[in-house]
Structures are given as structure tokens and as C-alpha cells.
Amino acid sequence: MKKVLFILAAGLSFTAASYAVESEKVIAATCFGCHGPNGKTVNKNGYSIAGKPAAVTEKILLQYKQDKLKGTIMNRIAKGYTDEEIKKVAEYLATLK
Q1: CA quadruple 63, 93, 43, 80: dihedral sign
Q2: What is the dihedral sign for C-alpha 46, 49, 55, 59?
Q3: Which residue has the higher pLDDT, 35 or 9?
Q4: What's the Rg (C-alpha) of the chain?
Q5: Which end of the chain has fewer CB atoms < 10 Å from its terminal CB, N or C?
Q6: pLDDT tens string 34-70
Q7: At what angle do helices 54-65 and 83-95 cross, to 10 degrees?
């Protein structure tokens, strides 16, 4: 019984760790609907988010979240994420070229 519990606990830990690593990719994928495939806008009035410095993207998202910047939808979107999720997605977006 102890072996089964250990294996189950180890499996749950692995699953949680896998989710944490991948969650920024899932969050970023929701951005691509407006900001273009892989964060590169195809609309001349759009705003590309791929490859921007992580600190800049994080700061902007936190400003939307705190209603310090006004947007049509970004305030509502940013409020749906924790500060840590915002940090992770900003770091991920910075890696896209």
C-alpha cells in the first residue's frame, strides 16, 4: 500500500510540474488570436508581442491588470491571470522570434 501511495504521489507531482512548465504556452496561445500567429501580427494596426523584452511585456500586462492602462479587452484578460502567470508568459513571449 505504501508503494502505491508513493507512486501515486510521485505521478501527481510530475503532472503538476509538467503543467507549470507548459501553462505559459497555453496562456500565450490565447494571445495569438489578436496579436497574430506566434505573437507576430499580420495586421498593420496590430501589435506584435513576440520577442519583446520580458520585463516590458510583464510591466504592460500588470498595468492593464491594475487599470493603469486602458484597453478594449486587455484589462479584463490580464485580470484573469496571477502575477506569476503574467511573468511566465512574458518570459515565454520574449523567446519567440
Answers
A1: negative
A2: positive
A3: 35
A4: 17
A5: N
A6: 999 999 999 888 899 999 999 999 999 999 999 999 9
A7: 140
Please state the separation of Cα 19 from the chain's center in Å: 12
d(CA 87, CA 25) in angstroms, rounded, equals 12
In the numeric block, which cell numbers belong to residue 80?
484573469
b/e sequence 63-85, b meaning 16+ C-beta within 10 Å: bbbeeeeeeeebbebbeebeeeb
Please return the burial class of 24, using the count of CB atoms within 10 Å of its CB with bins 0-12, 13-18 and 19+.
buried
Kindly give the interhelix angle for 83-95 and 2-35, rounded to the nearest 10 degrees.
70
Q: Please, are residues 1 and 7 in contact by the beta-carbon 8 Å criterion?
A: no
